[in-house]
Design a protein that fits this description.
Aspartate Aminotransferase, domain 2, two-stranded antiparallel ribbon, 13 helices, 41% helix, 13% strand, globular
């Protein structure tokens, strides 16, 4: 089965892990400290706290915000995984769901309708690896948490402004992995000082992610090569929407203007041993039964999006197979 997402673990990664295991110094912290230093150098930020997960990083960001303001509403898009919503609830804040624009990501316009006197923060989500510019939200009178769990590439661009905090995940399905874990980054030096603590990290994790970070440019090249193959060979009407956006190609969403039957598509692709997904598993306003708000764009995105595999360890042979099956399916059932 060609999985929808998969980490890229090579021989060097395995050698690095084995070296730590053979040393029996699993919690010395040497590899973890090295990773934090590498992350500081590559991002340009010094205040970084390594955490159990990306969700935990969001929770810690909110804990800093909680002592700075009595406001308790946090705006996030309905088109995102539920862990972000649950992180907000766990810290005693109120999740306020906003719609997204027509291109999957939240916009200044979709957020500003939800701003009020109780808005404490906005959580920006770079869904699929599509760039969200924090400058678009800079003038709003609230904190900004920039969740780059799906867009690590944006972190290493060293933009002039990211907001107040950046959160990252190193789960096996993310851009690069440490087996698990996350990071919280304070973007404004000295304003929100972070204790340089490592929650749940060990040197096996550190050795793996150090190797992955060292060759991250190879990750980017592989994703771009696969994306180019999709753009060249898939019908333009399926790939044109993502092609026009600035994306790190963490995911490759196809767009069907009139929607499609996901269960039917999933079953068809599975007969060829290919896993596909919708853009998100469920819209949060549906999952948590939020009413009296319009989420028209998110509902359209949910209905019209099909995500095909794209990750650095995907072989070109598998990529070509995905192209062939995708073309066949949409030709047979949708005349595309």
């Amino acid at each position: 089965m060609i999985s929808h997402s998969r980490p890229w673990i090579n021989k060097e990664d395995k050698t690095n892990i084995l070296s730590v295991l053979q040393s029996e110094l699993l919690i010395s912290g040497k590899q973890v400290q090295s990773f934090r230093t590498n992350l500081q150098n590559i991002s340009g930020f010094n205040e970084i706290r390594l955490t159990y997960s990306g969700q935990r990083a969001i929770e810690l960001a909110l804990s800093h915000i909680a002592v700075k303001t009595n406001k308790r509403d946090v705006i996030l898009p309905t088109y995102v995984c539920s862990e972000v919503y649950e992180a907000i609830l766990s810290m005693g804040f109120n999740p306020v769901l906003c719609d997204v624009g027509t291109n999957w990501i939240m916009t200044k316009e979709t957020v500003q309708n939800h701003l009020d006197h109780n808005t404490a923060a906005i959580i920006l989500i770079s869904v699929f690896g599509i760039d969200v510019d924090a400058n678009d939200f800079k003038d709003f009178d609230c904190f900004i948490i920039n969740d780059l769990c799906q867009n690590f590439d944006d972190l290493i661009k060293k933009r002039s402004y990211y907001g107040d905090f950046i959160t990252v995940s190193f789960h096996p399905t993310k851009c690069l992995t440490a087996l698990s874990g996350g990071a919280l980054i304070s973007c404004i030096a000295g304003k929100y000082p972070l204790k340089l603590m490592d929650e749940g990290w060990n040197d096996v994790m550190g050795s793996l992610v150090n190797g992955q970070l060292a060759r991250y440019s190879d990750f980017q090249k592989r994703r771009n090569k696969l994306a180019t193959q999709y753009y060249k060979n898939l019908p333009k009407e399926l790939s044109d929407k993502i092609y026009k956006l600035k994306s790190s190609h963490f995911r490759f969403p196809l767009w069907l203007e009139k929607g499609y039957d996901f269960k039917k598509a999933k079953k068809y692709f599975e007969t060829y041993d290919i896993a596909i997904r919708k853009g998100v598993d469920e819209l949060l306003h549906k999952k948590f039964k939020v009413k009296n708000r319009s989420y028209k764009n998110a509902e359209t995105c949910f209905q019209n999006t099909l995500s095909i595999p794209i990750y650095p360890s995907l072989s070109m042979a598998s990529c070509n197979k995905i192209v062939g099956v995708t073309k066949k399916y949409f030709r047979e059932f949708y005349g595309i």
